[in-house]
Each structure stands twice: as C-alpha cells, then as structure tokens.
Design goal:
By secondary structure, the protein is an alpha/beta fold. The chain has a domain of 203 residues: Rossmann fold. Helix content is 38%, strand content 15%. The protein is built from ten helices and 13 strands. Strands 3-2-1-4-5-6-11 form a seven-stranded parallel beta sheet, sandwiched between helices. The chain has a two-stranded parallel ribbon with strand order 7-10. β5, α4 and β6 form a beta-alpha-beta unit. It binds nicotinamide-adenine-dinucleotide (NAD) and 2'deoxy-thymidine-5'-diphospho-alpha-D-glucose. Nicotinamide-adenine-dinucleotide binds next to α1, α3 and β5. The site of nicotinamide-adenine-dinucleotide has 29 residues, from α1, α3 and β5.
C-alpha cells in the first residue's frame, strides 16, 4: 500500500529538502506538508512539487493540529516534525513564540500522533546539550544543558517526547543534528546572511572574537542520512546526526569570502548573550545502526551554497518583510 507521510514545517529550510528526498525515494507515497508559513517558511521552497497531485499542502499551525478537519482519523506511516521557531537571536526577543511553537506545538503533535497511532520523528538540535569543552563530545545520554531560550524550548520539546515514550509507549524518536547549511536557508542565519552582505560589499558582523566552533553539515547530506530511519524507525530512541569536522566562525567566513572573491571586512560586534563557544555531538550510535553519514567537504558545500544564492537572489527579498525588519531594528540597534 502507498505510504502516507505528514511533514510539519516542510516549507522551511531542512523540511523542504527532506520533502524532496522523500518524494524521490518513495515515488508512490502521498505527502502532506503542513506549515503555517511564518516569515521563515515559503511555498517557493517546495518548487514545482507543490503542484503535484500526490503532495498536498496544508497551511496550518501545529498547535491546532488536533482540530483540523479531515485529519482527525488519518493514520500516517510517519510524521516528521521540522516545524519550529529556529533563530537563536530572535529567541532573545520573542521567547513566547518559541515556547508556543516548539513546546506547545510539539505537545499537540504528540497528542495527534497518539490518537491516530502514527509514529513521530522529532527533529532536534545539538544545542540542547549546551556548550562542549575542548575534546568533549556529547552522546545521546549526555545531560541537557541549554543556554538560549531557543535551545531551552527545543530541550523542553525533547523532554515531552521522551515522557510520551515512557508514559504512553508512544511510537516516537528524536534526531539531534548539528548546524545545517545549503540552499534555501533563510538569510538571517550566518552563511546566507554573510553572502547577502558580501554581495553588497557591507562589513560582516562577527559576534565576539569569532572563535566559536560549529560542525557544519550540508542539508542534503543530513536529509540523506535521515531518510534511512524511515524504513527502520528507531522507536523510543534518540540519535545524533552531526558533521565530523568543526570550524570556527572566522574560518567559515574566510572560506566564504574566498569563494565570493570579495574583500569585505569582518566587523567584530558585541557577542550574542550566552553564546555557546562550541557544540560537539557523537554520531556513532546512528552510524552503527544505519551506516556512515556521507558528508561533503565544507569547501564543496559552501561553493554549492554560494552558487545557489547567486542564482536565486530573490530569496534576499524575504529580509524586507515587516516582521524581519522589526527584528533587525531591535537586534542591530546600537550594535558596535
Ligand atoms: P526554518 O526556520 O527554516 O523552518 C521552520 C519551518 O517551520 C518554516 O517553514 C515555518 O513556517 C514552519 N513553522 C514555524 N512555526 C510553525 C507552526 N506553529 N506550525 C507549522 N509550521 C510552523 O527551520 P530549519 O532550519 O529548517 O529547522 C528545521 C528543524 O530542524 C527545527 O526543528 C530546528 O530546530 C531543527 N534544527 C535545525 C538546524 C539548522 O542548522 N538549521 C540544526 C539542528 C536542528
Ligand atoms: O547548532 C544547531 C543550530 O544551528 C540550530 O538548532 C538552529 O536552529 C540554527 O539556527 C543554528 O543555530 P546557530 O546559532 O549556530 O546559527 P547561526 O547561523 O545563527 O549562527 C552560527 C554562528 O555564527 C553562531 O556562532 C553565531 C554566529 N553569527 C551568526 C550571525 C547571524 C555571527 O557571528 N554573526 C551573525 O550575524
């Protein structure tokens, strides 16, 4: 029988890439993309797919999923939750939006999935473990130690998923990944934002000393790995899927400006409050069960990313919406 998937947040950066992967791997499947289309989501991210008959788009909020007509009795082969408020800087100003979608929204989805007996995969982040010391790596049983309101909301969602597994025996699992990058990422995040600024010859605002370390995973490489759990669902498990190599922000910026062939100056601005110096997750549990994560080199991934943004400059228009402008006024006001 044809499979039926529900992909929440499928009009965002990673969700839309996952929909593409799912579409290709399961040509008979029916895919419902549910997304409320915040400033960060766009139907354009689905390209031609949203006109295809086996993909249905529902403009809806995950918090309301229990009351959506037509979905009440639908059992899905898998529900994947990418829907979230995701920008750490915004979580400093709009904390309640993060609590609403990331915590209450996840709770609504868990209830819906219990009612319809659908397995749910919650997409989480390395940020829930908080900062890793030098040489320290976090496995799935490490303590949760979130720093920002964003990370705290994601950790809270993870706790709800874990509680549902224990309390109700719910068919649920969590995947925690590291920094993804690639096409269609909303240009508020480091890599696309700096491409946007560099194209205009504007200085690049590096927070603090720029020596914070992140493990960058190309979005297609993450989604290819994630696809493997569809056929062998890890009920009750938490799995880390992170990039192997880590880079300082300054190194990423150096590689980016080399590819862009620009000499835009770096401007060291005030640091992000509670800015975690380093994230580091251990993906061996995933690799032992599903095989290695095939990841491209950062330089190759950055080249592909830059090429995509150069051929889709219209994505930068999304920075002009009132919502994004309001945030930027607040965030960059008085920043030196
Ligand atoms: P994104 O901000 O690009 O997309 C989020 C999507 O969710 C958007 O399409 C938005 O419209 C939708 N959405 C927001 N609130 C919603 C709601 N209440 N109901 C329905 N839809 C809603 O995010 P992303 O970078 O693609 O991240 C996807 C998931 O992966 C998130 O859960 C995030 O925490 C996690 N994650 C992201 C990264 C990363 O580097 N981007 C790394 C680790 C984990
Ligand atoms: O680690 C996974 C997380 O990666 C995800 O859970 C989040 O949803 C995602 O947004 C991302 O969070 P980061 O805070 O790491 O991403 P961001 O692109 O905002 O920043 C990357 C690094 O660059 C971080 O150390 C902050 C720094 N930075 C960012 C911006 C936007 C700057 O120095 N200057 C900037 O203007």
């Amino acid at each position: 029988m044809a499979r039926r998937f529900l992909i929440c947040g499928g009009c965002g950066f990673i969700g839309s890439s996952f929909v593409e992967h799912l579409w290709l791997k399961y040509p008979d499947s029916e895919i419902i993309v549910l997304d409320v289309l915040t400033y960060a989501g766009s139907l354009d991210n689905l390209g031609e797919l949203h006109t295809e008959s086996r993909l249905q788009f529902l403009e809806a909020d995950i918090c309301d999923i229990g009351a959506l007509p037509g979905l009440e009795d639908v059992q899905f082969d898998l529900v994947v939750n990418f829907a979230a408020e995701t920008h750490v800087d915004r979580s400093l100003y709009y904390t309640s939006d993060f609590v609403r979608t990331n915590v209450l929204g996840t709770d609504s989805l868990l209830s819906f999935c219990r009612k319809t007996d659908s397995p749910i995969l919650q997409i989480s982040t390395d940020e829930v473990y908080g900062p890793a010391r030098e040489n320290e790596t976090f496995g799935e049983t490490a303590a949760l130690n979130p720093s920002s309101p964003y990370a705290a909301s994601k950790a809270s969602a993870d706790l709800l998923v874990m509680a549902a597994i224990k309390t109700f025996g719910q068919k649920a699992a969590i995947v925690r990944t590291s920094n993804n990058y690639g096409p269609r990422q909303f240009p508020e995040k480091l890599i696309p934002y700096f491409i946007y600024l560099a194209r205009q010859g504007k200085p690049l605002p590096v927070y603090g000393d720029g020596k914070q370390q992140r493990s960058w995973l190309y979005v297609d490489d993450f989604c290819s790995a994630l696809l493997r759990v569809v056929d062998d669902f890890p009920t009750g498990e938490i799995l880390n899927i992170g990039a192997t190599r880590e880079y300082t922000n300054l190194e990423v910026v150096r590689q980016l400006t080399t590819i862009l062939e620009c000499e835009t100056p770096v401007n060291h601005v005030a640091d992000r409050p509670a800015h975690d110096r380093r994230y580091r997750i251990d993906s061996r549990k995933f690799e032992q069960r599903y095989g290695g994560i095939n990841e491209r080199d950062l330089s190759d991934g950055l080249r592909q990313t830059v090429a995509w943004y150069q051929s889709h400059p219209e994505i930068f228009d999304r920075l002009r919406t009132q919502d994004v402008a309001n945030f930027r006024d607040k965030h960059y006001h008085n920043r030196t």
